[in-house]
Write a structure and sequence with these properties.
Distance between the termini: 38 Å
Largest sheet: 6 strands, mixed
Number of helices: 7
Helix content: 10-25%
CATH topology of the largest domain: Molybdenum Cofactor Biosythetic Enzyme, Chain A
Number of strands: 28
Shape: elongated
Function: Catalyzes the insertion of molybdate into adenylated molybdopterin with the concomitant release of AMP.
CATH class of the largest domain: Alpha Beta
Structural class: alpha/beta
Pathway: Cofactor biosynthesis; molybdopterin biosynthesis
Bound molecules: ligand LQZAQKY5, molybdate ion
CATH superfamily of the largest domain: MoaB/Mog-like domain
Cofactor: Mg(2+)
Strand content: 25-35%
Strand order of the largest sheet: 7-4-6-5-9-8
Catalytic activity: adenylyl-molybdopterin + molybdate = Mo-molybdopterin + AMP + H(+)
Oligomer: single chain
Number of domains: 4
CATH architecture of the largest domain: 3-Layer(aba) Sandwich
GO molecular function, one term: molybdopterin molybdotransferase activity
Length: 406
Amino acid sequence: MSGREFFTARTLAEVLSGFRPVHRTPAEDVPLSAALHRVPVADIPAPAALPGFARSTVDGFAVRAADTYGASDGLPSYLDLLGAVRMGAEPTVAVRPGGCVAMPTGGVLPAGADAVVMVEYTAETMPGTIEVTRPVAPGGGIVRADDDIAAGAPLVPGGRPLRAPDLGFLAAAGVTSVAVHARPRVAIISTGDEVVPPETVNLAPGQVRDATASALAGLVVDAGGEPIIAGIVPDEPGALKERLAAVVAESDLVVVSAGSSVGARDETAGAVAAIGQIWCHGIAIKPGKPTLLAECSGIPIIGLPGNPLSALVVFGQVGVPLLWRVAGCEYAPPQPSTRARLSRDLPSAAGRLDVVQVRVRDGVAEPLFGPSALLSVLTRADGYLIIPEPATGLDAGTDVEVVLYR
Ligand SMILES: Nc1nc2c(c(=O)[nH]1)N[C@H]1C(S)=C(S)[C@@H](COP(=O)(O)OP(=O)(O)OC[C@H]3O[C@@H](n4cnc5c(N)ncnc54)[C@H](O)[C@@H]3O)O[C@H]1N2
Ligand code: MOO
């Protein structure tokens, strides 16, 4: 890399909308029991209408609605009790004018009926005669055969991670296997002569154990990916290029931590440029400015800043949405958040998005400060808030949205 400045600092919004490597993971069939949070490759159509038959939603009596019009406590309608519907069975009796049939919740609506009046608004004043004291409109107390879904309509959309209720809906429709995008394989490469494996018991002076790879692996699993810890590469010209070339062929997304800044040993840009195209070097975000984005044959490559805190913040903002996109999901699912009152003034430079770690107690968000070189800030945080690019800070007492860590 020439010079000591980053090529172009892009905003986070520009990155998310503009950096669009085309690679998507292939489809695979999974049973419903393994489909939670997986992304269907396409809309899944209903093989048949649901519920499939008109059914009661209340315990009561199937009626012709017109027979109940004007009914009141003072002037009830009197209907002949013609029989009863059994749960899970075809009705054996139809409703004729002036008649009614006893119904359980969920039973099949008998022919001739267009509503079910709730048992609370009825009384059997004499054997075989039902007194109705409230009118019911046509369609009242029932769902029709295709109210949940019509045959052929999409049960669940493609490109959106499956949620628990989706699994129930698919099960109700008899869909027990789903074509979903394969989990993205995310190669995680750490760099730096001083970085040693976490298993290292005694550190030589200046050595640090690799913190970033383990944390990134956790974020990858959280976002539905399969982390591949691809080791620690020393600061040697050529070493990173070699490792990158080896992993890119077997990954859906590649993450390199450290070496993306502007120091003498910062090799990432050169190595990445040798195997792919750099899209941007520098994002208008704090922490995380020295971030590099590139692609190689449609596979996204992210060069993260060396400071573990910055690396994790950037991966959350940029890597996680990219990971979901590679898995066929255009927009990452929203994270849980809460509203809180800011405990103190927060300064920020205009033109840069700030990700501020906070603790939340009793509805108050307390910013946690410390250099990005300190990992403990993230462990103490309950979540983060964002100060958008145009703002020059936030005043104490501002109502802020805090995105919560799980
Ligand atoms: N003159 C300037 N110096 C620095 C700037 C700047 O703009 N001008 N930016 C600072 C910022 S911000 C960051 S972030 C770092 C990014 O530098 P690199 O991406 O080149 O990363 P390194 O220098 O290799 O590492 C930084 C720091 O993080 C430690 N590290 C690296 N990898 C790991 C790991 N896997 N586990 C634990 N710790 C790791 C490394 O030992 C360094 O202490 O540059 C600033 N400097
Ligand atoms: O901006 Mo660096 O990415 O803080 O640690």
